Amino acid sequence: MPRTKPPDKSRDNTMSLSAMSSERIETDDNVWTRRLVFFLRIMAVVAVIKGLYHWAQVTGFIGGEEDAFENQPMAWQTATVYFAVIELVAAVGLWLATPWGAVVWLTTVVSMAVIELMFPGIYGGSLKVVAVDAVMLAAYLALAWMAARERPP
Predict the structure, then answer these.
(1) How many other CB atoms are there within 10 angstroms of residue 47's CB atom?
(2) Which among 36, 41, 117, 125 could disulfide-bond with 143, CB atoms 3.0 to 4.6 Å apart, if both were Cys?
(3) pLDDT digits (tens, 9 = 90+) for 22-57
(4) What is the maximum alpha-carbon separation in the chain?
(5) pTM of the entire structure?
């Protein structure tokens, strides 16, 4: 019967120590990427709040009887349902930091700007909403640019 060697304890200890020491070593190599993901998560929370606000309008949780969903014009109803759905979809994509999430969020930003600027009768034509969306879009583009510069080609 062949004789087997006993396991080498020093090798096992070395492997376990190297595995422990190679756990997440934090470096500043991806600082802009981490900032971008943090920004996307903040925007995801904002998108959830906006989406739930629109659903509250649809379901009647906010507003009085004269502000009820069924008493509003068809254009307002259509826009409200559209934003109720797309904001929550964008929120999921933003939270996961996926490319499609940013695209859906960009779609919501552009859609809201178009509705506010081109059709002021629907939501009132607030330039503040457009300005805030433009600032958030500029911040996203700047962070995405800096994060892309961190990665080698």
Answers:
(1) 26
(2) 36
(3) 455 555 678 999 999 999 999 999 999 999 999 999
(4) 93
(5) 0.77
